[in-house]
Structures are given as structure tokens and as C-alpha cells.
Amino acid sequence: MKFKLLIMAAFCILLSSCALTTSYDFDKTVNFSNYNSFTIYQQGIDKLKLNDIDKSRIIRALEQQLKSKGLTESTNGDLIVNVLASSKKVINVDNDPYWNGPWGWGYYWAPSSTVYESREGKLTFHLVDSKKNILVWEGMVDGFDVGNIRNKDEQISKAIQKIFNYYPPRKKDNSYY
Questions:
Q1: pTM of the prediction?
Q2: Which domains does the chain have, with CATH numbers?
Q3: What does the UniProt keyword field contain (predicted)?
Q4: Is the pLDDT of residue 24 over 80?
Q5: Which terminus of the chain has a smaller tally of CB atoms within 10 A, N or C?
Q6: Which residues of 110-135 are buried (b: 16+ CB within 10 A; e: fewer)?
Q7: How many CA atoms lie within 13 A of 90 on its CB side?
Q8: What pLDDT digit, counting tens, does each position of 94-107 carry?
Q9: Which residues pair with 120 in a beta bridge?
């Protein structure tokens, strides 16, 4: 029974370490229903230190999310969307003690540690009112494994979907999650 609880606790810790973290902020004086179209700021995309495949993934997922919110893509949109991307090195230490000692040697405990590093990515989205040239909404999502190439498309799509769950913002909600 205790072993099952230990396994379940380890699984929960593993899941929580892989979770995406989001936060957003917005201008509470803005009426977001006035925005009907968007333009992706190409100069911002060009400045991203990402390969072209990842840039395309971000643009594709971003366009999909904004269109699902009722916005249309336009060359002179009501909102200008800027994207920032960064990553940081994360060092993980897994302590895994084990028991050993059959065949008359007695039982003993021996610690074992595994140290590995990964890169954790962060995406930031700025929605700027194109007429007033002011920031009206900012969303950030971080915590996805940049080095995991096998499901990078899915990770980027889920990350963008998760942050745009908070657009358009609801007035009664706290702006930070």
C-alpha cells in the first residue's frame, strides 16, 4: 500500500514539473469587442532566434487561435500581434535511493542521483492597438521542453491555446494565473 502511494506521489510530481505556466495582463479600460482583425508583426517574427520551422509552427497556431476568437487576418488589422521567444537551461536532479543485498550480504541503502539538463521555453505575445499604438493585452506561457523535437508541434500548439484561453479577458477575473 505504501509503495502504491509512493508511486502515485512520484507520478504527480512528474506531471506538475511538466506543466505549462501562464500569465497575462491587459488594459482594463479597453473594450476588446471593438477589435475585429489582426496583423502579425513580421519584423518581430524575423527577429526571433528560432529556426524557420518553429516560426511557422508559432504563426500557424497563433493564427488558428485568433481566428477561433472571431478575429480575421488583415494587412491593416485592429491589433498588431508581436511574438517574443526565449529559453533557459534547467538542471534537474533526480534522487533515486535503492535497497540491495540478497544472498547473505544483508540489506543496505545506497543513494543514486541522476543529473540532467534541459531547455525550457517561454513565449510572450503582445497585442497592440494599431490606431493608438499602445499595448492592450500581454500573455506569457512557459514550461515546455524546447529540446523535445518529437512533439514540438503539439507542445507549441497547446501552449498557445492555453494562453489564448484568456483572450478576450473577462473583466471580473484576476489578470494573473
A1: 0.74
A2: 20-90+119-166 (3.30.160.670)
A3: Signal
A4: yes
A5: N
A6: eeeeeeeeeebbbbbbbbbbbeeeeb
A7: 17
A8: 776 655 556 555 55
A9: 88, 145
